[in-house]
Write a structure and sequence with these properties.
The structure holds two protein chains of two kinds. By secondary structure, chain A is mainly β. Helices cover about 0% and strands about 45% of the residues of chain A. In chain A, strands 2, 5, 6, 9, 10 and 11 form a six-stranded mixed β-sheet that branches. The mean pLDDT of chain A is about 90. Chain B has strands at about 5, 10-15, 20-25, 30-35, 45-50, 55, 65-70, 75-80, 85-95, 105, 110-114. In chain B, strand 4 and strand 5 (about 45-50) form a beta hairpin. By secondary structure, chain B is mainly β. In chain B, the strands form two sheets. In chain B, strands 2, 4, 5, 6, 9, 10 and 11 form a seven-stranded mixed β-sheet that branches. In chain B, strands 1-3-8-7 form a four-stranded antiparallel β-sheet, with no helix packed on it. Chain B is built from no helices and eleven strands. The radius of gyration of chain B is 13 Å and the shape is globular. The model of chain B has no long low-confidence stretch (mean pLDDT about 95). The chains are: A mainly beta, B mainly beta. At the A-B interface, strand 6, strand 9 and strand 10 of A face strand 4 and strand 5 of B.
């Protein structure tokens, strides 16, 4: 069965420090992975997807099929990055399987 | 365009009651999915509707049912409410034929079952 694991509930860093939010997945097919973000009092929104290989707000994520990981990285954290981050897997049934989320706290 | 809208924003029910939640998709979207997000957890897929029929379903009991109307809006019904049904219920819409990158989420309805 498909599963997405985000091992850290909370990640606290100082402004300007590098950030890595971990995501591991379990899926027998060809994975399609996403990162969603939820800022305080806002709705869930797509941050980036592995297919596009783009950088959004300075964040990047690389799919590593060997390690079944899709970690989210940013070289220099900003206070406005503080939010809840969810890794999600499209199982090919057009439904998303989400991880339990990691709260990123960027301190000044 | 207000994007995906959901009503009501909050709801309190007692065990055994029934509840109906509503969702209006983003303009131009024809597919609606529902998710349940329990406190401290990520969203869990309940089901998806397009062309007024349930097309995919997650691991939820038959107490959870839905409907899609000709204008693409959707309802989520939960019968015989349990305490464990307390959660944030999210609606997401997209255009069928596109991948989930075009999926937009609503603000959710927070349901409390006492």
């Amino acid at each position: 069965a498909q599963r997405v694991t985000q091992p850290e509930k909370l990640l606290s860093v100082f402004k300007g420090a590098p950030v890595e939010l971990k995501c591991n997945y379990s899926y027998s097919g060809s994975p399609e992975l996403f990162w969603y973000v939820q800022y305080s009092r806002q709705r869930l929104q797509l941050l980036l997807r592995h297919i596009s290989r783009e950088s959004i707000k300075g964040f990047t994520a690389d799919l590593n099929k060997g390690e079944t990981s899709f970690h989210l990285k940013k070289p220099f954290a900003q206070e406005e990055d503080s939010a809840m981050y969810y890794c999600a897997l499209n199982t090919g049934r057009r439904a998303l399987t989400f991880g339990s989320g990691t709260r990123l706290q960027v301190q000044p | 365009d207000a994007g995906v809208t959901q009503s009501p924003t909050h709801l309190i029910k007692t065990r055994g009651q029934q509840v109906t939640l509503r969702c209006s998709p983003k303009s131009g979207h024809d597919t609606v999915s529902w998710y349940q997000q329990a406190l401290g957890q990520g969203p869990q897929f309940i089901f998806q509707y397009y062309e007024e029929e349930e097309r995919q379903r997650g691991n939820f009991p038959d107490r959870f049912s839905g409907h899609q109307f000709p204008n693409y809006s959707s309802e989520l019904n939960v019968n015989a409410l349990l305490l464990g049904d307390s959660a944030l219920y999210l609606c997401a819409s997209r255009v069928r034929g596109l991948d989930t990158v075009g999926q937009y989420f609503g603000p959710g309805t927070r349901l409390l079952v006492l």
